[in-house]
């Protein structure tokens, strides 16, 4: 007989048991569910809702179950539906009648909300740690390459010279925002719903602030209807995971392009690349490609949950059981991707020589040539037109701007002087962009220092 079966005359169909049960996936919440139940039982005993003897028996029994779960000794039952009913069933088998009092003043509705909030807090902290490690790896590379010139791109066309250090710190900004976003996820989840019951609280004299204290939450929920039906914090986590995966995917796309023979900007370490079953020369960036592919999977988790929630009236509906698998999948995919990407990035060899040669092509100094004329007194729009004609001339003759003689340059504008060859060198193009947030090496070092301070001070 089910723990809720008193009102029913027939046993549940085996098909329904299989379809209805969530224990196959929500058993990963076992430790948290037991922790929540220990706090609930402790509070019930302190409040005199149950006897201290029963409360003590529950706490000791729950601790023994937790130990056995950790040791892999527990076999959960499908017909007990979920982790909550499984734990209560096992507890009653172990301590007898007292176990039946565990659910006093509590519903599975506020219980599952509690478990999922504790889980979100746990995995948000976990994500922040792996994002921090990626940020630290980026700083190591950026420090090494503050002056390694490379082409910056727009529309996948060479645009202006930057440095590899500047490029790495652009990704640092993305992942530092991801850390802040996960911190907000943690804060949104850090509200204790226990005591909200099925939807309308309880007549028992519960001390909700005591369970909040025992479980380490910063506050309690203020509306019992919202407390049991809210899954915003789950959506928040999967959204934050989706944005982080998007950042990883963009980075992976560049690493894939940079590792091609056409670019030769980076070489993956052998331990993070794969070969071909037929082509012996191949070295494939499979890790980066898989992360790029798995990003869509996390997006799917987010859209799945948003779609599930969009039509649900207050309060709890069984549809909400569907939040677990997409949450677990998003967490697993994000953490694995962060771990393997950071390891892959840390072992890459960046070919600064090839990057520098590439920056010299594609007229990446054309904007600087226009700025040169502006500094000589020409309006920018006129300078833009002059350099545009000059680039066209170079394209037809297969030359770069600095391959031209001073006489050729002066045929386009008399403002050109000998100093143009210094002003439009790759080194000058980078170092003269000496504005906060710019690619000049001293500015990159400033952002690295700011990044290190951010990581040192960042805390939940």
Model description:
By secondary structure, this protein is mostly helical. The protein has helices at 14-20, 23-26, 30-47, 52-70, 83-95, 108-144, 164-189, 208-215, 224-229, 232-258, 286-309, 323-346, 352-360, 366-375, 380-397, 406-410, 420-423, 426-431, 441-457, and strands at residues 149-154, 157-163, 191-192, 219-220, 266-267, 349-350. The strands form three sheets. A two-stranded antiparallel sheet has the order 1-2.
Count of DSSP H/I helices: 19
CATH superfamily of the largest domain: Fumarase/aspartase (Central domain)
Strand order of the largest sheet: 1-2
- Tally of separate domains: 3
Please name the CATH topology of the largest domain: Fumarase C, Chain A, domain 2
Structural class: mainly alpha
Q: Indicate the radius of gyration in whole angstroms.
A: 30 Å
> How does CATH name the architecture of the largest domain?
Up-down Bundle
Approximately how much beta-strand content do the residues carry?
under 5%
CATH class of the largest domain: Mainly Alpha
Largest sheet: 2 strands, antiparallel
Output the keywords.
elongated, about 450 residues, 3 domains, Ribonucleotide Reductase Protein R1, domain 1, Fumarase C, Chain A, domain 2, about 60% helix, single chain, two-stranded antiparallel ribbon, Fumarase C, Chain B, domain 1, two-stranded parallel ribbon, mainly alpha
Record the SSE blueprint.
Layout: H1 14-20, H2 23-26, H3 30-47, H4 52-70, H5 83-95, H6 108-144, E1 149-154, E2 157-163, H7 164-189, E3 191-192, H8 208-215, E4 219-220, H9 224-229, H10 232-258, E5 266-267, H11 286-309, H12 323-346, E6 349-350, H13 352-360, H14 366-375, H15 380-397, H16 406-410, H17 420-423, H18 426-431, H19 441-457
Parallel strand pairs: 3-4
Antiparallel strand pairs: 1-2, 5-6
Helix pairs in contact: 3-4, 3-6, 3-8, 4-5, 6-7, 6-12, 6-19, 7-10, 7-19, 10-11, 10-12, 11-12, 14-15
């Amino acid at each position: 007989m089910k723990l809720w079966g008193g009102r029913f005359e027939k046993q549940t169909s085996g098909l329904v048991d299989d379809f209805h049960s969530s224990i196959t996936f929500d058993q990963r919440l076992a430790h948290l569910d037991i922790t929540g139940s220990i706090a609930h039982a402790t509070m019930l005993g302190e409040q005199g809702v149950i006897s201290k003897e029963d409360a003590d028996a529950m706490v000791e029994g729950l601790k023994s179950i937790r130990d056995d779960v950790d040791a892999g000794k527990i076999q959960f039952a499908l017909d007990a539906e979920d982790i909550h009913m499984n734990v209560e069933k096992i507890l009653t088998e172990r301590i007898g009648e007292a176990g039946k009092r565990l659910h006093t003043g509590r519903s599975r509705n506020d219980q599952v909300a509690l478990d999922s909030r504790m889980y979100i807090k746990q995995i948000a902290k976990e994500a922040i740690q792996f994002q921090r490690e990626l940020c630290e790896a980026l700083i190591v590379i950026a420090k090494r390459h503050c002056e390694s010139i490379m082409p910056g791109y727009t529309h996948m066309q060479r645009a202006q010279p930057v440095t590899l250090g500047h490029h790495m710190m652009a990704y640092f900004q993305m992942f530092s925002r991801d850390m802040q976003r996960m911190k907000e996820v943690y804060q949104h989840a850090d509200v204790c719903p226990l005591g909200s019951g099925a939807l309308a609280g309880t007549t028992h004299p519960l001390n909700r602030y005591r369970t909040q204290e025992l479980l380490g939450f910063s506050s309690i929920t203020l509306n019992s209807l919202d407390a049991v039906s809210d899954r915003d914090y789950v959506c928040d986590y999967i959204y934050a995971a989706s944005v982080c995966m998007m950042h990883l995917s963009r980075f992976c796309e560049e690493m894939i392009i940079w590792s091609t023979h056409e670019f030769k900007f980076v070489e993956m370490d052998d331990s993070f690349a794969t070969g071909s079953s037929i082509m012996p020369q191949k070295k494939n960036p499979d890790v980066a490609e898989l992360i790029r592919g798995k990003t869509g999977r996390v997006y799917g988790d987010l859209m799945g949950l948003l779609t599930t929630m969009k039509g649900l009236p207050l309060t709890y509906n069984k549809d909400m059981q569907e939040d677990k698998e997409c949450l677990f999948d998003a967490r697993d995919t994000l953490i694995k991707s962060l771990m393997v990407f950071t390891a892959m990035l840390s072992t890459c060899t960046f070919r600064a020589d090839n990057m520098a040669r590439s920056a010299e092509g594609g007229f990446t100094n054309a904007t600087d040539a226009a700025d040169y004329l502006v500094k000589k007194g020409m309006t920018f729009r006129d300078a833009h037109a002059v350099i545009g004609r000059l680039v066209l001339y170079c394209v037809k003759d297969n030359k770069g701007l600095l391959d031209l003689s001073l006489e050729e340059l002066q045929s386009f504008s008399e403002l050109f002087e000998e100093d143009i060859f210094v002003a439009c060198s790759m080194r000058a193009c980078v170092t003269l962009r000496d504005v906060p947030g710019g690619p000049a090496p001293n500015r990159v070092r400033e952002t690295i220092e700011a990044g290190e301070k951010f990581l040192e001070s960042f805390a939940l």
